[in-house]
Amino acid sequence: MMPYVDGFVLAVPKDKVEAYKTLATTACAIWMEHGALDYVECIADDVPYGELTSFPRAVMAKEDEVVVFSWIVYRDRETRDAVNKKVMADPRLKMEGMPFDGKRMIYGGFTTLLRASDIVG
Fold it and tell me: What SUPFAM superfamilies would the database entry show (predicted)?
């Protein structure tokens, strides 16, 4: 069975990266506790501003913001749905003042098409 992945791209103000890291650390613990297989958060390092499309353009990143690319891995879609239901009900995520603009976050669920471990094994 191929894993299911939730993916996210968002813009975080540079002066709020540490606050975001604190939030992400809490979120990671919660997702893992409720059954996620992996949780990864990455800060953009080499993401040019494209002429038509790019990570910064996709989230309308401003000069004082950095792009964050993250994903959560689950055993399958059914597990993902069950985990997310528990996570959304978890009071530890009910906090004021998120350190990013959620309206510009891109997210979605993905079925795995290919992974190296299945080919190289």
Answer: Dimeric alpha+beta barrel (SSF54909)
Q: What CATH number should be reported for the domain holding residue 24? A: 3.30.70.100
| Number of separate domains in the chain | 1
Q: How far apart are CA 60 and CA 101, in angstroms?
A: 10
Burial class from Cβ neighbours inside 10 Å (0-12, 13-18, 19+) for residue 71 reads middle
Task: Answer whether residue 115 is part of any domain.
Answer: no
Contact 93, 27 (CB under 8 A): yes
Indicate the pTM of the whole model.
0.93
Q: What is the DSSP letter of 92?
A: G
- Whether the CB-CB separation of 3 and 73 falls below 8 Å is answered with yes
Q: What is the pLDDT of residues 17-45, one digit of tens each?
A: 999 999 999 999 999 999 999 999 999 99
